[in-house]
Each structure stands twice: as C-alpha cells, then as structure tokens.
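Please, structure for the following, as tokens.
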Amino acid sequence: MRTTLPIAAGFYTSDALPLSAQRAVNWRPSVPQTATITDANLFSTEGIVGLITGSVLDECRGAHVLAGIPYFVISNALYRLDRTIVGGTDVFATVLLGAIVGNDRVYMADNGTQLCIVAVPDTVTAGKSYIFTASPDTLTEITDVNFDGPASSVKYINGYFQFHKSDGKKFFNSPLNNGLTGYDPLDFNVAEADPDQIRGLGVLNNQLYVFGSETTQIFRDIGRAPSPFSPVVGATIDIGLFSPQTVVKFGGGLAFVGGGVDESPAVWLVSSGQKRKLSTIAIENELSKLTIEQIEGQVFSWVYAESGAYMLGIATPNTCYVYDIINDRWHERQSIDGSSLEAYRVSHIVTAYGRTIVGDTITGNIGELSEDEPLEYGILTPRLITSRPFDNSGNSVNVASIEAVIESGVGLSNDTQIQTGISASGQPVYATGGSDPQITLSWSDDGARTYDGFISRSMGKIGEHMHRPMWNRLGRFARQRVLQFEVTSPTKATLIKVEADIG
C-alpha cells in the first residue's frame, strides 16, 4: 500500500516526545494554493550573501531605513550602507557616522529627515538618545534640558518621536518634527488603565499602543497641548508585553511576545483593540523554558516578505521560531556557530535597494537574504526535518521502501570546497562536494532521543531531473517510529512529499 507521510506540518515538539517531535529546521513549509500532487511541501530557507564583512566581535545592535537608505548600529558605532553601481553591478560600502554607547540592542525611528537612536541603559552605561541628520552627516546626542531620559524605546507617530521612560512610569514626546531640541517637560502622559509598568510602544493605524507588563492601552493624537495624546475610551487589551524587543508590525497588527496576569509567554497579534494568539502550545512550551532575564533581554523579532510568504521571526538564545502567516505554519531557523547548529545569526532585517538586508549576531557582517543562495556567508548550513511518529494503531509494520519526492537534478556542475564550521582551535573546517547532493534518512524508536540508520541517497546530479531517492528493504518498523531527513549540500532543495510502500 502506497502511503504519503506527513512531513510539512512544521514545528511542533511536545514535552512528551513520543507524542510529537516534529521539527522543520531551515525548511519552510508551504501549502499550495491550487491542486498539486501534494497538500503541503518544504522549501529550503534563504541563505545569506555577504555584502559587508565586519569584525568578529562587532555584533549588529540595530537597523533602520531612512529615505531609502539603510543604517546600522554595529558594536559602538552608527554606519550607513551606501550602494554604487559599477558596470551594472552593485557595490556596497559602509560609512562611519559616529559613536553610540552601550552593548544592548538599540531602538530606531525616523520622522522623514531625522533618525532617532535610543541606546537603552545597561550594566555599563546609563543610556543615551541621539539624532542623526544627513547632508551634512551629523550625529548628535539629545541633551535638551527638558528631555526626560534615559529612554527605553522610541517610535514615530504624527510628526512626533514618542519615547517611554526607562523607569516605566510614563511616556513622552518630542516637539513636532524635531527630535533634537525644544522639549516641553509637560509633553508626557501615563497609561493609567492599569498600574503596571510601561514596557514598550507600538504604532498601528495612526494610534499609539502603550504596552505595559500586564495590559496594553491605546492612545490617539487629539491635537491638544501640551501633551497631544489621549487614551481611546475602552481601548485596553488585557495582555502585556514580556519581551520589549519583539514589538513589530505584522499581518495587519502588532505582533509581540507577551501575556496576561500569571500567564506564560506566548506570541500575540493585536489590532483595533482585539487580540489573537499566533503561537501554538509547542511554541509556548519552549518560550516558558526561558528565564525571565532571557525573555526580557534576549528574545527579539524581525519580519520580512519573500515569494508570497510573510514571515515573523521570534529569536531566542538557542533557535529562531518563524511563523509564516500565509501558510499558517511554524518552522525553525538555525545557523552553524562553531561546528553545530545554534541560534539563527540574523539580528535585524530591513528592505532597501530592492534587497532584503540583514544584520548579524555573530560578526559585524551585513548580508542579503537570497533564495538563490544555499549558504550563510559561505558556510554550509544543514536542513533537517523530523516527522510525526509513524504510527499504525500501536502495531509494527513492514516497510518495503520509502521515497523522497524532490526537485531532483539541481546539483552543482562540479564539486567545490565549502566551509562546514569552525574547529575547536578556531580554524575553518572544509568539505568537498555539491555535484552529487545527498539526502540522509535516519530513524528513532525512542521518541526522537537517539537515531539510527543515517542512510544517504543521491538527489541527482545536475540535469538528472528524473532521479528518485529511495530507501528499499527497510524491514519492520517499530511502533511509533520517527523519521528524520537531512540535507547537507551547497544547493537549493525542495522536498515535495515522502511516500512509503507498506506491506
């Protein structure tokens, strides 16, 4: 009997692994929007093409686009990424614009002509806020005597920079169209619907969302003086913000990691006073394993669109959970750090110059997400899919063969030397391959704790489009066997479906 095995459900790992240990690491589940040979398939996620090579220790702390030009805070400096076209080819260079204090991620916003940067207080510095203007390039600390800093975030709305104070007790705004001078000490407001502390700000549909630790209150600009913002009557949402760096516009709302009183962290989407949970129980179980310090300071978000998909990334210290709102599926992204898969290295994503440009958590690199690139800055990153248990009502079955239906024949024209990691001594580790890409099958009978098999099959050399990776004479499968497929090849990969002949 020919049976199609479900492999494109995405991430759903249960605390009870025999129940579900499904993972999709560096694979993106996709649901076709018309009749095809499968209900869902897997595409390999984008690689990263290097645009700028930075120092090993220069982590990206912030990124923002002003007037079509991207700016990055890398280590303790603000840079502009310039592009020139030479002989029809884009050439990129960074321009150093000035120093930014601190070590933590920064907040950035613009009013069309001014770029505001908030370096939040940390264990080393008290925090500072800056205004950058171009032509001529000038980076200036906000030192107005009435600037009620230090601030902990900034957003732009209706001509104002809106800040929230680091003590979490109030939020205040800049003068109209000027973030550098002319602050009024009375231009502030408080979120009084609940006495919780302010954790962050968001802007949606010309309204200001003030996120507390337990509730969210919505304000609007009514044009009054001295403080132009007033609460919208009845517009209070009974969930708060747990991870301040996760507030992003997404799917017609504001997405973030938060929850209500005595609730565990979850991924929420709010809009027009309504809330919707995006995370599954599996995602929430993983988030709940993090410490309060990790949730508050090490979890962050980014968004981008690619090939009809719209992605929200929730990055944690160990991995990155990515939600595709079009396909309503979660998957994971991880990068090679040393010799093993660790946290995804993308720190920020912006769109400029017709490209999806990313900052880096490991180095000062600036790169571009690209569907046509299988590597990350030249490093080979494995792709891993773990199925749900191969269950037959608790009975073992005989499996004559398994076939991975793939886009075959996409190997390289010749083998090439590819970096696969870094040794314990800090030296790059290389392997040679690519002309005959492989897909490897392994299996687990103990709830995805240990694996056996590791049998590789060719995915087809270049032009071998009729090639079919098959594993024959697999024998008797134990009850609740979990299958795992891994592709480690410097090529794109598409896993259409997996079929089994069951005797």
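The domain at 100-237 is CATH 2.120.10.80 (Neuraminidase). The chain is about 5% helix and 55% strand.
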